[in-house]
């Protein structure tokens, strides 16, 4: 059976190259997304077998998308495609429910293999991130510290320097609700200032420095 998938990356040239690679391998690209929010919407619409998602997307990154899709569409298998080989990104990705982790530098060699492996129900890490995968498996606790998808989204926007007003506009909520989310984040994470939230977000791979 032909594998149908959705691609999510905020760089159009990357998506074009990936589409060409995957279609030449016999896969069907059912849709392309420029950020995590659009990726979630496309999965709702297209109901693909698999989604390939970049981590480093603005506003709603690949990890937030993976966490939401794991909860809403558990049958859709997820692969992240990223430049990051740091352990915090790898561990957080697998804790968010992804089954494959492919480095962009190795995509031409590894992505097709990853899709085939993940479609068979296997876990596929790119060579070079095995130690981080082992760490994630050895510490399978709640890697997102009990945060909701909305709280992670607010955390990412705070860490990206977005103002309270602009966060509200982007998420369709009031400034008061944004401040409520900020307060809950600080309480849950035992962090007492915005700078601490930013450091936490970077450390946990919610955003990039």
What's the topology here?
Layout lengths: L3 E5 L3 H13 L3 E6 L2 H11 L3 E5 L7 H11 L4 E6 L4 H9 L4 E4 L3 H13 L4 E2 L4 H9 L10 H11 L4 H8 L3 H15 L4 H10 L6
Parallel strand pairs: 1-2, 1-3, 3-4, 4-5, 5-6
Keywords:
single chain; globular; Arc Repressor Mutant, subunit A; 53% helix; 2 domains; 10 helices; six-stranded parallel beta sheet; Rossmann fold; 6 strands; 13% strand; alpha/beta; 209 residues
Low-pLDDT parts are none
User: In which order are the strands of the major sheet placed?
Assistant: 2-1-3-4-5-6
- Proportion of helical residues: 40-55%
Number of helices: 10
Number of beta-strand segments: 6
Profile the largest sheet: 6 strands, parallel
- Give the full name of the CATH homologous superfamily of the largest domain: Response regulator
Instruction: State the end-to-end distance.
Output: 41 Å
Mean pLDDT equals: 87
What is the highest CATH level, the class of the largest domain? Alpha Beta
Q: Which radius of gyration do the C-alpha atoms yield? A: 17 Å
CATH architecture title of the largest domain: 3-Layer(aba) Sandwich
Strand content: 5-15%
Overall 3D shape: globular
Order of helices and strands: EHEHEHEHEHEHHHHH
Quote the CATH topology of the largest domain: Rossmann fold
Q: Kindly give the count of domains.
A: 2
Look at the helices and sheets and give the structural class: alpha/beta
């Amino acid at each position: 059976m032909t594998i149908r998938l959705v691609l999510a990356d905020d760089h159009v040239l990357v998506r074009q190259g990936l589409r060409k690679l995957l279609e030449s391998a016999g896969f069907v690209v059912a849709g392309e997304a420029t950020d995590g929010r659009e990726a979630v919407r496309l999965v709702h619409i297209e109901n693909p077998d698999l989604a390939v998602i970049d981590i480093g997307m603005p506003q709603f990154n690949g990890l937030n998308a993976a966490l939401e899709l794991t909860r809403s569409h558990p049958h859709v298998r997820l692969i992240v495609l990223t430049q990051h080989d740091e352990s915090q990104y790898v561990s957080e990705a697998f804790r968010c429910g992804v089954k494959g982790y492919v480095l962009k530098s190795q995509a031409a060699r590894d992505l097709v293999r990853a899709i085939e492996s993940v479609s068979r129900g296997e876990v596929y890490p790119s060579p070079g991130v095995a130690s981080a995968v082992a760490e994630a498996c050895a510490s399978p606790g709640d890697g997102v510290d009990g945060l909701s998808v909305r709280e992670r989204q607010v955390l990412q926007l705070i860490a990206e320097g977005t103002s309270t007003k602009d966060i509200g506009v982007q998420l369709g909520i009031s400034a008061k609700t944004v401040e409520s989310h900020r307060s809950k984040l600080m309480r849950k994470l035992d962090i007492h200032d915005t700078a601490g939230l930013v450091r936490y977000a970077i450390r946990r791979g919610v955003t990039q420095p």
